[in-house]
Design brief:
Blueprint (H helix, E strand, L loop, with lengths): L1 H4 L2 E6 H15 L4 E5 L1 H5 L3 H11 L3 E4 L2 H8 L7 E3 L8 H6 L2 E5 L2 H13 L4 E8 L7 E2 L5 H12 L4 E8 L9 H25 L5 E5 L1 H6 L7 E2 L3 H4 L2 H6 L6 E6 L2 E5 L4 E2 L5 E2 L4 E6 L16 E4 L2 E6 L7 E4 L11 E5 L5 H8 L3 H7 L6 E5 L2 E6 L5
Parallel strand pairs: 1-20, 2-3, 2-10, 3-4, 4-5, 5-6, 6-7, 6-8, 8-9, 9-10
Antiparallel strand pairs: 1-11, 11-19, 12-15, 13-14, 15-18, 16-17, 17-18, 20-21
Helix pairs in contact: 2-4, 7-8, 8-9, 13-14
Bound molecules: pyridoxal-5'-phosphate.
Length: about 400
């Protein structure tokens, strides 16, 4: 087991997570609540450990994408409020109620079926109404001609039996993109959102306890959008330009060790397809890290890993379980040497840019066979390997 764990692993710095949480809290001020987005296994960081740290640090809410993700947290001792952002089938409503899980309500049909089910099982389902203000994904459409119809639909939902409309939210499409046009688009989404809320609350004669819309970009740049609660994901994990603006720390690093070192003459083809051919005598290291661990194959022959002697080029096609690197001028890097794939010395943002993607996708791609080592004060406090053993 220990040997498996030292093949390729991810280090999750819980101190950095706590630091980021506190920095964001200081940024939003005391009047605003904090929802931590921990969907997709907390962006690959491990949702149970991340949620535990947030719970003990005093966060107010968590969000996940599905009931399975919510139940994983409940079965592991997470008692704080959890919002499901995505769809839950109606036959699971009793489970939501029993486990005190809050459900997003995204349209009239769902409001009706959730209400019916809640009444049938004699409970009350806590809901947050989702408004589509321009993301064009989930939520009541309220744009333009749809405004009156949207408001009416929401009003119907909040008055249905068996439902407790605790909150209302929307999601920004371009709050993290630069430029004036994007700023205008976000302004428009925000104005539409607050207009909808006002119209509903006036007619309802009640107020939503939690109005929220600020994702990472809006949390950092748009204090006017904070309302009752912010809802960042990526920011919490310390990646991207907005994290840098607040001086946050990256939470995850992925590391591996050199498994084999060999010397090849000039003219040798390395890996599948032979897209890399040595030009001179080359000292090649094999790393037990491939696309099944989350090393996007699109990075083949284009990435550099970090060694104790600096950056080393990755050579040829990335395989499922392995890849090769050039150690020709790095004689002290040998079998067993530790290699940083991304982390403190090799920012994940660079890896994402080289692959033509975003840091979100890189951290979510770190696969379940990569064990997570949770660190506090430089010590490993917990290890987790999500294989069926
Ligand atoms: C994923 C998600 C977030 C968090 O987005 P970040 O860009 O990571 O801050 C917030 N709200 C909703 C509805 C989401 O789906």
């Amino acid at each position: 087991m220990e040997s498996t764990l030292k093949r390729t692993w991810a280090e999750i710095n819980l101190d950095a997570l706590k630091y980021n949480y506190e920095k964001i809290r200081a940024h939003i001020g005391p009047g605003v609540k904090f929802l931590g987005v921990v969907k997709a296994d907390a962006y690959g960081h491990g949702s149970v450990q991340v949620a535990r740290k947030l719970q003990e640090s005093g966060a107010d809410y968590l969000a996940v994408s599905s009931i399975d993700e919510a139940m994983e947290l409940r079965s592991n001792g997470i008692t704080m409020p959890i919002l499901i952002l995505g769809h839950t089938p109606k036959d699971q409503v009793d489970k939501l109620i029993k486990n005190n899980i809050t459900q997003a309500v995204t349209c009239e049909a769902k409001a009706l079926e959730y209400s019916e089910e809640a009444v049938r099982c004699g409970g009350t389902l806590k809901i947050h109404i989702k408004v589509d203000t321009g993301m064009s994904r989930l939520g009541y459409i309220c744009e333009g001609d749809y405004f009156g119809h949207g408001v009416e639909g929401i009003l119907n939902a909040v008055n249905l039996p068996g439902l407790d409309a605790e909150g209302i939210f929307t999601h920004f499409a371009v709050a993290d993109e630069p430029g004036d046009e994007n700023k205008k688009y976000t302004d428009h989404q925000f104005k539409l959102f607050t207009d909808v809320i006002k119209s509903v609350e006036d007619k309802w004669q009640k107020k939503f306890k939690l109005k929220h819309c600020a994702n990472t970009g809006a949390t950092v740049l748009r204090p006017e959008t904070h309302l009752d609660m912010v809802r960042p994901g990526l920011l919490l994990y310390g990646y991207g330009e907005f994290a840098r603006m607040l001086g946050l720390k990256p939470v995850m690093s992925v590391k591996t060790t050199v498994s084999t070192v060999k010397i090849y003459p000039a003219g040798t083809k390395i890996s599948y397809g032979g897209i890399f051919v040595t030009e001179k005598k080359t000292r090649v290291g094999v790393l037990p890290y491939g696309y099944a661990d989350g090393f996007l194959r699109a990075l083949s022959n284009r990435y550099e890993v970090y060694t104790e002697e600096g950056f080393a080029k990755q050579l040829g096609k990335i395989c499922m379980d392995m890849c090769m690197i050039d150690l020709t001028d790095k004689m002290s890097v040998d079998v067993g040497s530790e290699i940083e794939i991304f982390g403190e010395n090799n920012p994940v943002e660079k890896m994402a840019e080289t692959a033509g993607t975003i840091p979100y996708e890189i951290v979510c791609a770190v696969s379940k066979r990569v064990p997570r080592f949770y660190k506090e004060n430089g010590e490993t406090v917990f290890k987790e390997l999500l294989l069926r053993m």
